[in-house]
Predict the structure.
Amino acid sequence: MTIQWHKTTCPYCGFGCGLMVGADKGKIIEIKGMEGHPVNNGMICTLPANSVPMFTAEGRLAKPMIRRNGKLSPVTWEEAISHIAAQLKKIIETHGPGAVAIHSGATCMTEEYYLMNKLMKASIGSNNVESSTRLCMASSAMGFVSTIGADAPPACYDDIEMADLFFIAGNNMAVSVPALFMRVAQAKEKNGAKVIVVDPRRSETSAIADIHLQIRPGTDVALNNALAHVLLREGFVNEEKVEEYASGLADLKELLKMYPPSKASEITGCPEQLIIDAARTIGRSKAMLTFWFQGYNHSTQAVFKNNSLHNLWLLTNNFCRPGAGPLSITGECNALGCRWIGGLSHLLPGMRMVANPQHRQEVADFWGISIDKLQPIPGRSVIDMIKGLHTGDVRAFWSITTNPAASLPNTKWILEGLMKAELLIVQDIFHPTETSNLATVVLPAAQWCEKTGTFVSSERRIELAEKIIDPPGEAKPDCEILWLIARAMGFERQFPYSSPEEVFEELKKITKGRLCDMNGVTYERLRKKVGPQLPCPEANHPGTPRLFTNRNFPRADGRAALLPREYSASKETIDKEYPFVLITGRQQWHFNTRTRTGRIPKLHQNAPDNFVEIHPHDAANFNINAGDTVEVASSRGMTKGIAHISDRVLRGTVYMPIHYGNAINIEDGRLANLVINNVYDIHSKQPEYKFSAVTIKKSYSC
Ligand code: SF4
């Protein structure tokens, strides 16, 4: 055997680890971390390290299928493409462009997002393009836009080794971004950096914390306001300096008067002295690096949580300099590339907004279309797409490399909506999934290592993931599927491509002069070296490790905004009938809804079933023992898992992993989303996965 090694980047979380993939005779043999890569320097976590069986796993889609007489039957690509094109055109003619919607994963490649957007926004005339970055990072994006004027994470991973304090909120990075956690833990050990963790649950990450603020779920705004209150009260804020780079200090101070630590202690359940200690630790820090992920973003107060956190690093001058700044890590590998190229219903390529007439004109000029073709009103968020399926306003739903039947909250309502679609296209790599089981058309797609394109990581680093082996059977790269359908709909002139590289060469031009400028990047450059951090406007530009180092922000007065944000309770209330708060999270063994990882024997065996973590006091009250099957019910439905009795959770709180749908290797009824609420933050339209009122009881049926 002669293994050929290929440089690539990880297809799972958004940290962007450099990987080496070994292949021989058209087969993937081994996957390992890339030594010397600036992100992970050879480190690799369980997901890619165990992913070799993913390429030969049962259920790989190899042929298109159309549902006839209730059954999915194999057809040729020509039949599938002409069927889809004809159906889409009929629906658009009858019900208008708004009756069509695309929802994709955030692990698609930048080139693929560009084609989805061009097809929908420029050719069809609908802004109904969404991606699962709506479910993951939309609130971070809106938080950045409102505070600093752009969805542009300013810090970089090199800051990890330069920080003297890590503020980690709403995330168990030890299991969700293990390579990041290893860097943080090593920096703490080597440099003596301190760690503050904010999490309602004791976790592998809080195990290394100097201060763990174990707050009640959803109370982060009250906590952040109290931290800011103490920072101001105890003289840790240089107000004159803050006024130079941030507006809104007077209004913020007024609001913060209402948040002494005693009040925050009542709201959050954290001891008052611990809040004061945490604030003093922040105040004394010379370089604080701030991390926050889905624990913040899965909330009806998500954008306010982001803003109130941004107030902390702005007040303490902890940003845009070595070791200091805000870093939100995306849950999926190309969430940032997706947003920057317009992959949400309110966005246009190149960090532009559909509601901005100048942005619409720039994009219309670029695409050579009338500005009237670009709709000025944001399209539907993914939750609103499902609402549209229920009401009949959306008739065609196209799911690309994602699994909304399992990933979206309130499963029963989601399934009812999806089943109403006249045309439900599922373009994916495996069948069955919870969504492909409902499809009217299934398209077999190539996966990572079987196709070529770029990913942009959470520190704005662009990398190339190239085709190494052929996809199985007739599976095609997503780019090719998209341009074939576009051409069949009559958009031949707009979609003349024959390679993803041609798509990239076009899309990078629309980023010119923007914070996501990719004009210094070529596939050739990415093949030879580690990719640069964007913006990278010219061929000889080294990339941009940190943004806004001149403290000039893209807002009208050049200053960031200190935003006074009041705490409000979550939408759902706890009562006698539903006395517990359900929070959710990831496990190290699975990714999203297990479409891939549930088919990898080692990963499945390590975490074959869902569980419910219950505080010992609550378990005793409800006569539940470790290992019992537990029913978790809300007003929306019921799910089950194995009881784990642990004081990692607070009394009154239960925890479940997110991963377990019913399509593979598990019995039905284990999915947390069966009970989760489908309300969302009105500013980001991101659903509240992390606060659902539930009750629990021992299940006697198993
Ligand atoms: S930490 Fe994230 S990017 Fe790195 S190997 Fe693990 S899943 Fe991949």
